[in-house]
Design brief:
It holds the Pfam family adh_short_C2. By secondary structure, the protein is of the alpha/beta class. Helices cover 47% and strands 15% of the residues. Bound molecules: nicotinamide-adenine-dinucleotide. The site of nicotinamide-adenine-dinucleotide (NAD) has 29 residues, from helix 1 and helix 6.
Length: 253
């Protein structure tokens, strides 16, 4: 039986993949969910398929654009009037070595993956504080935990987001807000299909003790736990959900 009919979550990058699975997880627990994404067509389709118009709100927004984020938060506040959980999941990836990564690629990856969560948090925290607090989960990556030859922009953005998580946890605890990160290993979403070559897939298969990619639902479960009261004494942590990859420490291409 759902117990959280008054609770509101905002999930960025929620039109597909891990973000959509996370939105579904919140809905299954009786939360209402604002789904934010830059891809309006896919977002509208996803929200239509969820078929819960009373419990969902679609927000078309580029998380790296301060004005667009402000408009999205205004719409969320008008519709729901409060915020209990923010999942900074929107992300973009360029898998190239340092010397082949363009300035524009570097800037875009940093803007979406790192500046986006900075912008959303600045608007989410006061809204959460109005009702006594909440929880934020940033989606980093195992690529932010260690260096690899193809991930200079992506890995650096995710390592920065892991540090932002600790910074947010330290600064927002006084407002009753816990902040943690989930660092997925490979999950076979559209993003992974776009950037994981056969060589990368073989690397991962060998390097992951559980010998498989993760499922979107397995990530959503960890994210939901860190947003729920069941994790009430956990803040400032980065939880790898990666089939044991980080534990064994084998490098990647
Ligand atoms: P995905 O590409 O399937 O979904 C990402 C969503 O974010 C898309 O709907 C996309 O439209 C949206 N998005 C991209 N840029 C945006 C922007 N500027 N503003 C708003 N929305 C934007 O990816 P996914 O695999 O579900 O990844 C979700 C998160 O998990 C990302 O942060 C990603 O870096 C991280 N991650 C994924 C994997 C993996 O193997 N799939 C591994 C580690 C970390």
């Amino acid at each position: 039986m759902p117990e959280n009919l008054d609770k509101i979550a905002l999930v960025t990058g929620a039109a597909r993949g891990i973000g959509l699975a996370t939105a579904r997880r919140f809905l299954s627990e009786g939360w209402r969910v604002a789904l934010l994404d830059i891809d309006v067509e896919t977002l509208d389709k996803a929200v239509a398929e969820l078929a819960q118009p009373e419990a969902t709100l679609a927000l078309a927004c580029d998380v790296s654009d301060p004005a667009a984020v402000a408009v999205a938060f205004a719409a969320l506040t008008i519709r729901f009037g409060r915020l209990d959980a923010l999942v900074n999941n929107a992300g973009t990836a360029v898998f190239k070595p340092l010397l082949e990564t363009s300035y524009e690629e570097w800037q875009r990856v940093l803007a979406v993956n790192l500046t986006g969560p900075f912008l959303t948090t600045q608007l989410a925290a006061p809204l959460m504080a109005d009702t006594g607090g909440g929880a934020i989960v940033n989606i980093t990556s195992i690529s932010g935990l260690r260096a690899s030859t193809l991930r200079v922009a992506y890995g650096t953005s995710k390592a920065g987001l892991a540090h932002l998580t600790k910074q947010q946890a330290a600064e927002l605890a006084g407002l009753g807000i816990r902040v943690n990160a989930v660092a997925p290993g490979p999950v076979d979403t559209a993003m992974a299909k776009a950037v994981h070559s056969p060589e990368i897939r073989a690397d991962y298969h060998d390097a992951i003790p559980l010998n498989r990619y993760g499922l979107e639902e397995e990530l959503a479960e960890a994210i939901f736990f860190l947003c729920s009261d069941r994790s009430s004494y956990i803040t400032g942590q980065v939880l790898a959900v990666d089939g044991g990859f980080d534990a064994v420490g084998i490098g990647l291409t």
